[in-house]
Amino acid sequence: MGMIGVTVVYEARLLRAALAELLESGGVRVVASLPHWPREAAPAGAGPDVYVADAECLASCAVSRTVAGGSALLALVPAQRPGVLRRAHAAGATGFVDKNGSKRRLLEAVRCVAGGGQFIDDTLALGFLQAAEMPLTRRELSVLSLAAEGEPVAQIAAALHLSPGTVRNYMASVIRKVGARNRIDAVRIARGAGWT
Predict the structure, then answer these.
(1) Is 1 exposed, middle or buried (0-12, 13-18, 19+ CB in 10 A)?
(2) Are residues 116 and 62 in the same domain?
(3) How far is CA 54 from CA 30, 99, 158, 160, in A?
(4) Whole domain around residue 14: which residue ranges?
(5) Which of 22, 73, 114, 178 is the one with CA 20 to 30 A from 162?
């Protein structure tokens, strides 16, 4: 394989530029640097070898293996956010690097996924286990996400086509499952884990 072509996807401009510079200093060619995931897929074979993306960006947009146009996807993940890790995996990432990791590990991961392999940073193993153990159902996450935006029970019920009593039951279940004291505490715990 010749020089690896990479597209960096990172919302924060300064960090995106620093990441691009770090990759280029390691012998990787940065072909593009984007603040958000591209809306259109590159034609097969025309995209970069690897997308190196902030997992927070992957968690907030619709990404799929097909959108990547055959390119590998490497996610930069915060170690203490199992929900973000879970969503990056669901987005089709085949490589996962701890944001607090070293340049050497990042370059190793880029080369690995560019060659068709999978890469998981050792420090993220516990995060994968915790991500697999996420206690909330999709419906509970939907209710909690709307509650996190400050929506009252009646509006959550209307948005999800549920009765207010059912919404209250879901919130009670969420509070119990995450070990929270109340709705606000449940939102704090879920955000801390990266579930919402």
Answers:
(1) exposed
(2) yes
(3) 15, 9, 33, 30
(4) 5-131
(5) 178
- The angle subtended at Cα 122 by Cα 47 and Cα 25, nearest 5°, is 45
Give the C-alpha distances (Å, rounded to integers) separating 64 from 26, 53, 54, 154, 171.
28, 13, 15, 34, 30
CA distances from 88 to 39, 188, 192 (A): 17, 21, 16
Q: Tokens representing 177?
A: 């499952």
d(CA 90, CA 78): 16
Q: Are residues 157 and 122 in the same domain?
A: no
Are 115 and 166 part of one and the same domain? no
End position of a domain, from candidates 85, 104, 131: 131
- What contacts 86, CB < 8 A, 6 or more positions away? 131, 132, 134, 194
* Domains contained in the chain, number: 2
Question: Residue 97 region, left (φ>0) first, then alpha (ψ -120 to 50), else beta?
Answer: beta
What's the rounded Cα separation, in Å, for the pair 11 and 34?
A: 7
Query: What digits encode the pLDDT tens for the residues 22-41?
Result: 999 999 999 999 998 877 66
Q: What does pTM read for this prediction?
A: 0.65
Q: Could you report the per-residue pLDDT of 38-81, keeping only the tens digit for each? A: 776 655 556 789 999 998 877 555 554 444 567 889 999 887 77
Using CB atoms within 10 A of its CB, is residue 81 exposed (0-12), middle (13-18) or buried (19+)?
A: buried
